[in-house]
Write a structure and sequence with these properties.
Elements: H1 2-10, H2 13-35, H3 38-48, H4 67-81, H5 87-100, E1 106-113, E2 119-127, E3 130-133, E4 143-144
Antiparallel strand pairs: 1-2, 1-4, 2-3
Helix pairs in contact: 2-4, 2-5, 4-5
Length: 160
Amino acid sequence: MRKTLKRYRDRSPEERGAVTRAGLLIVTLQAMLRVLPFQKVMDGVYRVARPPASAGFGHGEHSQFDRDLAVWAVEAAGRKLLSRNPCLPKALAVLILFRRAGEPAELRLGVAREADGPVEAHAWIESSGQVVIGGDVPLETYTRLPDLDQKFPGPRKDDP
């Protein structure tokens, strides 16, 4: 624990802030996933993921959004806070961070099963056609489920 705190203190203020935000998101999402039906969690995620009216899509402070920093912060916080099934809370945290900044992000879910083995699920985020988190497993082994974005549409540039 001491080593973790030292590494945290040695980071820049921007990195510490990003890890703190990511950690709070992950803890909140993990708790929600444990106690709420999935549809309620997703309703909340997509409501929170809307960019604030002041974001202006590419104008002002939000145009400085650092995609790599956001993903790194979620991965770093997830390593310390999640012990089991970390892909969904991490993917949802990245989805929220990206969309709040006006960045494109789509949640992808897939399932896989080896012969006579248990069904395994995986979640990842794609942005502009690239996997930004969750690509640490061979995604081609998963059968992708229908996109949730039609049921839970994300922000559009013309949204108030």
